[in-house]
Design brief:
Strand content: 15-25%
Number of helices: 18
Number of domains: 2
Organism: Dyella choica
CATH topology of the largest domain: UDP-N-acetylmuramoyl-L-alanine:D-glutamate ligase
Structural class: alpha/beta
Keywords: ATP-binding, Isomerase, Lyase, Metal-binding, Multifunctional enzyme, NAD, NADP, Nucleotide-binding, Potassium
Helix content: 25-40%
GO molecular function: ADP-dependent NAD(P)H-hydrate dehydratase activity; ATP binding; metal ion binding; NAD(P)HX epimerase activity
EC number: 4.2.1.136, 5.1.99.6
InterPro entries: CARKD, Nnr, Ribokinase-like, YjeF_N_dom, YjeF_N_dom_sf
Low-confidence stretches: none
CATH class of the largest domain: Alpha Beta
Length: about 500
Amino acid sequence: MHANRHLRELYTVEQVRALDRRAIDELGISGFELMNRAATAAFACLRRHWPHARCIAVFCGPGNNGGDGYLIAGLAQDAGLGAEVVELSDAACGDAALARDVWQRGGGITHRWHQDASLPHADVYVDALYGTGLNRAPEAAASALIERINASGIPVLAVDIPSGLNADTGHCPGAAIRAPVTLSFIAAKRGMYTGQAATRTGALEINTLGLPEILWQGMPADATLLDAMHLGPRARDAHKGDCGHVLAIGGDHGTAGAIRLCGEAALRCGAGLVSVATRSENLTALNSARPELMAHGVHGPQELQSMLARASVLAVGPGLGQGAWGHALWLTALDSGKPLVLDADGLNLLAREQHRFAAPAVLTPHPGEAARLLARTNVEVQADRFAAARELAQRYGAVVVLKGSGSLIANPDGRLDVCTWGNPGMASGGMGDLLTGVIAALMAQGCSAWDAARIGVGQHARAGDVAARKGERGLMASDLLDPLRALGNGLDHD
């Protein structure tokens, strides 16, 4: 997917519509020709994924997505496959109406959908109900059809986008098709890579319909898919002082594990020195389990000051708590003006006491923490993750990592990258603590906050995928430490 830069560039629905209009108005390619190209690409995709299919059923809506569907059915019929169409209505217009006429003039079988009707027998279903323009829940009849398709057990090819999924946000406001394969056209739509999209799109392919390079000129992408990156080799005369000093602050009563994971991740990702400021009761456990961490018991801000003076980057929040001890250390860390990564209770404290960062900073909220930082609900954040991440970055003057399926990395200047790696096994305690240490280590080694967040999120997610080769269920944060080291050095991990 990353070989063609246009397949790494993510666009909004409005931008894709503009590209479509440009192809018609400036390149002289008719809308019906684009529809034929889309149908040809979709039928080829279907044959590639299900070569033994002998009959298909195509579900068509009244818009251009439905027009694609009628033409796909025609191609299947011409190829000797059995093909039937189930349509929501006969209200197709424009190019979609022309495609419907072509199908019917060719003797195609068409059924009108009624909620008490049975679905046709087929080896593959083709979803051409709704295109990228849908930004609301499907209406009742369409919702019932979508639920029936999902419950059928028959594999689905989604044409352009699974019906019901918002192509801008990755949110499903109502029923949505679950497709094992989705073929999208012209450009990659940003909402198909985050939020609920992963449970709907399956294997996602992009086909640019043979359109020339000139089409994309002057159309900057809204976001970009994250690349696999790592730091270059160290100078042969490097010493630990060249590689930065991370100070990890946290580990209140009962949470020594959180700050240990953070500190150990920083070590594994190349920080030259890692100190830990924590509760005194944690020192024995930390020193015995990971002696490379320079752990110090601190009772308050005064004992933290000398450690701050030696540090180049701070990692604040894992196991910090929101009590008097954690708040005092948090406030002292922010007042130091040091570059930092803020997570967990560091973010919860920030939601209580607003602060705009002048020094380089990375905030790594999950949706619940993002909701508190924006004084919104979790549902509102997830309904438009792109808007939430960008607003957080601008409000706090920091690079923001909005974690979750399809993590987003947002820069205050509006740039945004989307991470497509990672897996459900990473939904377990300690993963965020690990990510905090990874990003802090990269900043300590000279990366900007933006680059550290991008590289760190990518390596963390890819390490999770390596660790999940033994199964997703039961995956622990510490399972990522070995692959993190390998990936950070540009090596494959067995």
